Amino acid sequence: MVCSDKMRLSLFVFLITTSTVLPGAVTIRNLVFPAESDNSFVELVPQKPLNLAAFTLCMRVATELQGSREVILFAYRTRHNDELNVWRESDGRLSFYLAGGGVLFQVPQLSGLETHLCFIWDSSSGASALFMDGRRSLTKTYKKAHTIQPNGNVILGQDPDSYLGEFDINQSFVGSITDVNMWDYVLSDSAIRDMVYKKTGPGGNVIDWNTTNLQVTGVVEVSDREL
Ligand SMILES: *[C@@H]1O[C@H](CO)[C@@H](O)[C@H](O)[C@H]1NC(C)=O
Ligand SMILES: *[C@@H]1O[C@H](CO)[C@@H](O)[C@H](O)[C@H]1NC(C)=O
Ligand SMILES: [Ca+2]
């Protein structure tokens, strides 16, 4: 059989293509904050304003920070207020704050092994909970009838005490963070569980990690990795 160069080439291209797009292999952007700082952060540009009466916020996080130190995991601030901050508290609890006092969850410590986290909140009932690797926390009633206000900035790595400023090195995030997605509604428990291992499916309709623009300031390593 005579195999033309063109056929060889297309066979070659076919093999390359099939070997890099294995079923189930998904490549995503990964952020590493290598050290404590009061000036390194990443701004995420959402797909739409954070005018929210409910949300689901998910991410994959690994951090080796231990001991009594607050660690900011996600910050959304307008010119007037901290509208949504997600924390690892100094005692290891995980929490979020909507313009005021927060809701805290006693859960296993974050570690250097990646943990899939989702936080949910619904204004109509105030129902709040988190999911760690798909396992649901208890549900707490928090900020019923509250609304998160639009026109702020979403940042990873720092807690701004003013609009994009007044960062505290002792609250900075150190570690890796990826797959940050946000929806303006509460996903079902099963959808959240599926996300942990199935890895595919639509991204958030408020923040879609696959497409959201990442604006890096300071020292943050951005790379592609397999999810
Ligand atoms: C950060 O924490 C260290 C150790 O506790 C302390 O010495 C330092 O003053 C703190 N820095 C700021 C800016 O609070
Ligand atoms: C992100 O993009 C990858 C590759 O295009 C796709 O397989 C995956 O389902 C997407 N994930 C989300 C969360 O959109
Ligand atoms: Ca602060």
Secondary structure blueprint with pairings:
Elements: H1 5-20, E1 27-33, E2 41-45, E3 54-62, E4 71-77, E5 82-88, E6 94-97, E7 102-105, E8 115-122, E9 127-132, E10 135-136, E11 140-141, E12 153-156, E13 175-183, H2 189-198, E14 213-217, E15 221-226
Antiparallel strand pairs: 1-13, 1-15, 2-12, 2-14, 3-8, 3-13, 4-5, 4-12, 5-6, 6-7, 8-9, 9-10, 9-11
Bound molecules: 2-acetamido-2-deoxy-beta-D-glucopyranose (2 copies) and calcium ion (CA).
One 2-acetamido-2-deoxy-beta-D-glucopyranose binds next to loops.
Overview of the molecule:
It is a single chain. The protein is mainly beta and 227 residues long. It has one domain: Sandwich (Jelly Rolls). The protein is built from 2 helices and 15 strands. The protein has helices at 5-20, 189-198, and strands spanning 27-33, 41-45, 54-62, 71-77, 82-88, 94-97, 102-105, 115-122, 127-132, 135-136, 140-141, 153-156, 175-183, 213-217, 221-226. The strands form 2 sheets. Strands 1, 3, 8, 9, 10, 11, 13 and 15 form an 8-stranded antiparallel sheet that branches. A 7-stranded antiparallel sheet has the order 7-6-5-4-12-2-14, with no helix packed on it. The N and C termini lie far apart (42 Å). The structure holds 2-acetamido-2-deoxy-beta-D-glucopyranose (2 copies) and calcium ion (CA). The site of one 2-acetamido-2-deoxy-beta-D-glucopyranose has 3 residues, from loops.
